[in-house]
Amino acid sequence: MNSLFPWLLFLQLLAMAAALESLRPGFYSETCPPAEFIVRHVMKKALIREPRSVASVMRLQFHDCFVNGCDGSVLLDDTPEMLGEKLALSNINSLRSFEVVDQVKEALEAACPGTVSCADILVLAARDAVALSGGPDWEVRLGRKDSLTASQEDSDNIMPSPRANATSLINLFSQFNLSIKDLVALSGSHSIGEARCFSIMFRLYNQSGSGKPDPAIEPGFREKLDHLCPLGVDENVTGPLDATPVVFDNQYFRDLVAGKGFLNSDQTLFTSPRTRPYVRLFSKDQDQFFKAFVEGMLKMGDLQIEQPGEIRTNCRVANRGTVDGLMES
Question: What is the rounded distance in angstroms from the CA atom of residue 241 to the CA atom of residue 223?
Fold first, then answer.
C-alpha cells in the first residue's frame, strides 16, 4: 500500500458530503421512468439463465466503490494508454458476469439513450441481485457519473485478499467510514455465489506457512473441501460460499459459527473477538442481518470522489469524445 493511499482516502471522504447532495432516490423518474424496471427485468433473466451470475454482478459494486468511489471504473477494459481494474490482483480470474451489465446497458440505451450511468447500473443491479435471491429490497440513491479512466494500481493498493484477517479488514473498512458492523453485514453478500479453489488452497494445505490446514475449519467440512480442491486440481474449480448459495439468507453466518466458512476472510470474522458478536447476532436473527446489510450497502453506495464524469454509452469504454479530450490535455 503506497504512501498516497491515506491522502486519497481523505480526499474521498471530503467529497462524500458534496456527492450526497446530488444522489437521491428516483433520480431517473423524469428522464428515464422505466430505468429501475429495466434493470430488474434483465437481472431476473440472468438469474433464470445462471443463478451464480447475479451474485457475481452484486460483488462488482464492492470492487467498484472501494476504488475511487462508485464510478463504474471497474467495468472499463484496458486500453493501450490505461491499465484498468479488471486484471488487478483481487479481480483477475475472479470478477465475472460483465456481460450481464452489458445487457442491462444495452436495454437502457434502447429506452433512454445516454441517460443512465454504468455506476448507477451497478448499484441497482446489486440491489436487485439480493432481492431476486430472497433477500431484502430497498430504495437506492442514484445520480452517479461514470469515470473517464480506471487504475489497476489503485485497485491493487486497496482491495483485500481472500487471505485477509479480521484486523486488516476492519482497518480497511474504517478508512471508508464503515464500521465493524458494516464489515460483517456486507460480508454477508457471500450468502450467494461461489468462489474458486485458488482462494482456499493455502487454507487447506499450508495455512500461515505451517504445511497444515487451517485449524478453524470444521473437520467434516475440510474433508468436503479436500475433495473439491485436492492438490493439483484446476484452481478455477468453484465451490459454494455457504450451504444455500442461491438463496440470500443468514445461512452464511450460521456456517461461520459452525467453522464452515469457505474463505479465510469469511471464517476470520468468527475467530476474531472484535467481529464475532455480530456474526453470532446475524446467525440468530436474519432480520437484523437484512437491516444491517441494507444500511451498509447504502453507505458503501455513497462513496464518491471529486472527478470528471460522464454517462458512458458502453460500460466497457469511455465515450470517444472524452477519450480524445483526455489525450489532448
Answer: 16
Number of continuous H segments (helices) and E segments (strands) in the chain: 15, 2
Beta bridge pairs of residue 82:
79
pLDDT tens track for 220-235: 999 999 999 999 999 9
CA dist 69 and 173 (Å) reads 13
Name the pLDDT band for 94 (thresholds 50, 70, 90).
Answer: confident
The C-alpha torsion from 168 through 169 and 170 to 176, rounded to 10°, is 110
Q: How far apart are CA 205 and CA 185, in angstroms?
A: 29
56: three-class secondary structure by DSSP: helix
pLDDT at 180 over 50: yes
Q: Which of 41, 63, 190, 227 is catalytic?
A: 63
In sequence order, the 6+-apart residues with CB closer than 8 A to the CB of 4 are: none
Cα gap 130→61, rounded to integer Å: 12
Q: Which cell numbers hold the place of 94?
A: 475472479
Rounded Cα distance between 201 and 207, Å, is 9
| Cα torsion angle, 64, 65, 66, 69, sign | positive
Sign of the Cα pseudo-torsion (65, 190, 178, 136, in order)? positive
Residue 182: alpha-carbon gap to chain centroid: 14
How does 286-317 read in b/e, with b if 16+ C-beta sit within 10 Å?
beebbebbbbbbbbbbbbbbebebbbbbbbbe
Give the whole-angstrom CA distance, residue 185 versus residue 41.
Answer: 27
Given a contact cutoff of 8 angstroms between Cβ atoms, the answer to whether 70 and 143 are in contact is no
pLDDT at 12 over 90: no
Contacts of residue 186, defined as CB under 8 A and 6 or more positions apart, other chains included, come to 62, 178, 293, 296, 297, 300
Query: Do 147 and 65 contact (CB within 8 A), yes or no?
Result: no
Q: How far apart are CA 45 and CA 97, in angstroms?
A: 13
63 is catalytic: yes
